[in-house]
Design a protein that fits this description.
The protein has 30 helices and 22 strands. Strands 13, 14, 15, 16, 17, 18, 19, 20, 21 and 22 form a 10-stranded mixed sheet that branches. A 5-stranded antiparallel sheet has the order 2-1-5-4-3, with helices on both faces. A 5-stranded mixed sheet has the order 7-8-6-11-12, sandwiched between helices. A hairpin with a 5-residue loop joins strand 4 (275-286) and strand 5 (292-301). It folds into 4 domains: 2-195, Orthogonal Bundle (Arp2/3 complex 21 kDa subunit ARPC3); 203-306, Beta-Lactamase, CATH 3.30.450.20; 318-482, 2-Layer Sandwich (Alpha-Beta Plaits); 495-666 and 733-762, Alpha-Beta Barrel (TIM Barrel). The longest helix is centred in the first third of the chain and has 42 residues, at 157-198. Bound molecules: ligand C2E and calcium ion (2 copies).
């Protein structure tokens, strides 16, 4: 009996050992592992049956019930099914009197094992020794009970009792070992996963509670340059850069011990000695007693990210051309200066510098030279200021120097600022050598002083800018300080802006027409000049509002309203012979021409009004065309294609060059009134007008003179070849109705009928 038990125990142990090998061998291949497991369990049963002692009754007693029920419990239906089929098949083949009880034992064991598995999965019973023992007892009792159903003489308590004693214990033994195998294989898999996870792109470092390095991964070696052998057993502080002080590390440890975690940016040192920034996350690992057993540190080298951040920061806050701080950064610094100034009561000065005539330098020598000049100006400013000053570039040719920590007394601070401004002047006034050129340039300067935060940083910069404009207007080498009068001007301007907005809504801007005549003295059309019919202030000339409207971005709307009225007027005039052939010239601001949808808007307006595009002329100034020549040419060509005509206003005051005049689809040059005013005495003006007329002749353009006030001027202009005229001599700008009356009065008598109808409908448009 003992020998038999040892035999069976050895068999079960071999089964376990083979099962372990089998699971390890197949790894994650579940079906194959189950199939071979089933075969293993099945063969074990077969061998068990072979080895069993067969009493005369024909019954074979062995451990098959234990093997099969445990195969079902731990392996599931497939394993138990294969094993059961194998064992059952063999038992059937053996035959004999105990065949059916034997097969019944096989089937029942499988079913009971599966039932146990089902209940266990539902979480209702465990697979601990006691559960297994009870299961073993129940199974055996049930089996023994079943045997009594079969009419076999030798089935009695003599055989049942030992089985009832041994089999449950065998169940516990086998169940415990199989459970252990499953746990062990699972642990091995987990370890495998952990080891793979350990080799990530993140550098990982494991230390003991005393920061002694126990393990590192490959990424750690790649980041730090240390191989595992070089660091294992050493203190983690071997990596420290020396950049962080004791307080930093104390705070880190404090948080680690309080929360078990710490993360942040740390500067460490590579093996090569190079310092580098890394993002470090440290987690404490606790043992079951709650004591720290390990620290795991994950590190990401953020050198590149930091560099990218720095690049973005630089782009956002520094001007690309000169490398100087831009407006955003200046605003920040001004804000900072206002805060500290408020505390210390000292004055800060903002010097706004604008390069005189920069636009002409650009136009004359090209953007390349312009850019170089700006770089040199920036360089000289950098050299001339002190380290505590800020130099910024705000726009094309506008720079700001901020000088902090001036005197506490206003007058003294102003004198200090003025002295510093003069230093800058002399630094910037010297000629600039650019390529082969020597460029002379000066700057206009406006200053604002402050020692509090009563205004915003933006307002302070605006004050300095306003003072600069005043300085520019006053002539060169003048410094202007922002004062209360200027402040008042700012407020007035803001109020005016609001008023213009309201006026636009209320359609208070109306066209006045100033006649344009040909050589024969016949009115051929008029220039549309905007007037503001102000409800309180009466009729206002453009001098009051155009500039402010331009600065506030409202002039486009005024222009569009004038264009609309001009188009409808032209269309209306087509009905009468006296007006049918008249043209209207409308002033256009630069902003409108460059607006993306301007061409479409104008063409739509012409189509809707029914005006003939050939009778519409647009007056542009030279300087506005220079802003973006290619765009201006493209827009003008497109409009020209539809018949719209173009005139260059204030001609002779800009920097027109033949090269660009030829590229523009022009029809007319308009001699600026400043030249006409000086006639007939001024030789200079005479020469200029002569040159303009000659130029227009060679380019086959019309010439019109504006501001003609006297007959002498008229005669002289005619003599020089000018064919068209406009000025007070022929008529001041007048309301549309008055213009039409004047026109009809100069026509023949039968036009009187027309006059009446024209007048009646004049207000309609
Ligand atoms: P501009 O286009 O050069 O218009 C000619 C200006 O000279 C007009 O002034 C006109 O009244 C004035 N003028 C005409 N003949 C004589 C003369 O014989 N002697 C003198 N001393 N002056 C004469 P106004 O109407 O005050 O317009 C001033 C400026 O306002 C215009 O100069 C133009 O640049 C601008 N402007 C007028 N209306 C509009 C408009 O609808 N849109 C835009 N963007 N600007 C406009
Ligand atoms: Ca004009
Ligand atoms: Ca003009």
């Amino acid at each position: 009996m003992i020998f038999h038990l040892v035999e069976n125990a050895t068999l079960l142990l071999s089964l376990c050992w083979l099962q372990l090998l089998n699971t390890r061998f197949w790894g994650n291949n579940d079906s194959a592992a189950k199939l071979t497991s089933g075969l293993l369990f099945g063969f074990t049963c077969v061998i068990g049956i072979m080895m069993a002692r067969e009493p005369e009754s024909g019954l074979i007693f062995d451990a098959r019930s234990v093997v099969l029920s445990m195969a079902a419990l731990f392996g599931g239906p497939l394993v138990a099914g294969v094993a059961g089929l194998l064992a059952g098949g063999y038992r059937l083949w053996l035959g004999g009197a105990g065949m059916w009880p034997g097969v019944a034992e096989i089937v029942l064991s499988v079913l009971l094992g599966l039932a146990y598995r089902y209940v266990h999965r539902g979480g209702k019973v465990g697979t601990g020794p006691w559960s297994l023992l009870i299961f073993g007892l129940l199974t055996r009792t049930l089996l023994e009970g079943t045997f009594f159903l079969f009419p076999l003489a030798s089935v009695d308590f003599k055989t049942s009792v030992p089985m009832l004693l041994v089999m449950p214990l065998a169940t516990v033994g086998l169940g415990w070992m199989l459970g252990d195998i499953i746990r062990r294989v699972r642990d091995e898999r987990d370890l495998n996963i952990a080891a793979t996870a350990f080799e990530t792109r993140q550098g990982l470092l494991v230390t003991d509670p005393n920061s002694r390095i126990l393990r590192v991964n490959q990424a750690f070696s790649a980041i730090t340059g240390y191989s595992p052998d070089e660091v294992i057993g050493k203190q983690a502080s071997l990596l420290s850069s020396g950049r962080h002080n004791a307080v930093f590390y104390q705070a880190m440890w404090r948080q680690l011990s309080a929360t078990g975690r710490w993360q942040g940016e740390v500067w460490n040192r590579r093996k090569s000695g190079e310092l580098y920034p890394e993002w470090l996350s440290i987690s404490a690992v606790h043992d079951p007693r709650g004591q720290v057993s390990h620290y795991v540190a994950a590190m990401d080298d953020i050198t590149e990210r930091k560099a990218a951040e720095a690049r973005i920061q630089h782009l956002a806050f520094f001007d690309a051309l000169t490398g100087l701080p831009n407006r955003s950064l200046l605003l920040d610094r001004v804000q900072h200066a206002m805060n500290t100034g408020t505390r210390s009561n000292t004055y800060t000065a903002l010097l706004f510098l604008d390069v005189d005539g920069f636009k002409s330098i650009n136009d004359l020598h090209g953007h390349h030279i312009g850019d170089q000049l700006l770089r040199l100006v920036a360089e000289r400013l950098g050299d001339a200021v002190r380290s505590s000053d800020t130099v910024a570039r705000l726009g094309a040719d506008a720079f700001v120097v901020m000088i902090e920590d001036l005197d506490r007394e206003h007058q003294h601070a102003a004198t200090q600022a003025e002295l510093r401004a003069k230093e800058l002047w002399s630094a910037l006034g010297k000629p600039y050598r650019i390529d082969e050129l020597t460029v002379h340039s000066s700057v206009s300067m406006g200053v604002t002083l402050f020692s509090d935060d009563a205004s915003t940083a933006g307002e302070r910069i605006q004050q300095a800018e306003m003072a600069m404009y005043q300085a520019k207007a006053a002539g060169r080498r003048v410094i202007r300080f922002f004062d209360s009068a200027m402040q008042e001007a700012v407020s007035t301007r803001l109020l005016l802006e609001e008023d213009i907005r309201r006026g636009l809504q209320a359609e208070e801007f109306i066209p006045y027409l100033q006649p344009q005549l040909n050589e024969a003295g016949r009115v051929i059309g008029a220039e549309v000049l905007a007037r503001w019919q102000h409800p309180q202030r009466g009729l206002l000339a453009p001098g009051v509002f155009i500039e402010v409207a331009e600065q506030a971005g409202l002039v486009e709307q005024i222009d569009l309203q004038m264009l609309r009225r001009a188009c409808y007027r032209l269309s209306w005039w087509r009905q009468w012979p006296a007006t049918a052939s008249l043209g209207l010239a409308v002033n256009l601001s630069a902003r409108l021409l460059y607006q993306a949808d301007f061409v479409d808007t104008l063409l739509r307006l012409l189509a809707r009004s029914g005006a003939d595009p050939h009778q519409l002329k647009l007056e542009l100034t030279e300087t506005m065309l220079l802003d973006d020549m290619p765009a201006a040419i493209a827009r003008m060509r497109e409009l020209k294609g539809h018949g719209i005509r173009f005139s260059i206003d204030d001609f002779g005051t800009g920097y027109s060059s033949l090269a660009y005049l030829q590229k523009l689809p022009l029809d007319q040059l308009k001699i600026d009134q400043s030249f006409v005013r000086e006639l007939p005495e001024d030789g200079n003006s005479l020469a200029i007008i002569n040159a303009i007329c000659a130029l227009a002749g060679s380019l086959q353009l019309e010439v019109i003179a504006e501001g003609v006030e006297t007959e002498a001027q008229h005669r002289q202009l005619r003599d020089m070849g000018c064919r068209y005229f406009q000025g007070y001599l022929f008529g001041r700008p007048m309301p549309v109705g008055e213009f039409e009356r004047l026109l009809v009065a100069t026509e023949s008598d039968n036009a009187v009928v027309e006059t009446i109808s024209l007048e009646r409908d004049a207000e309609a448009c």
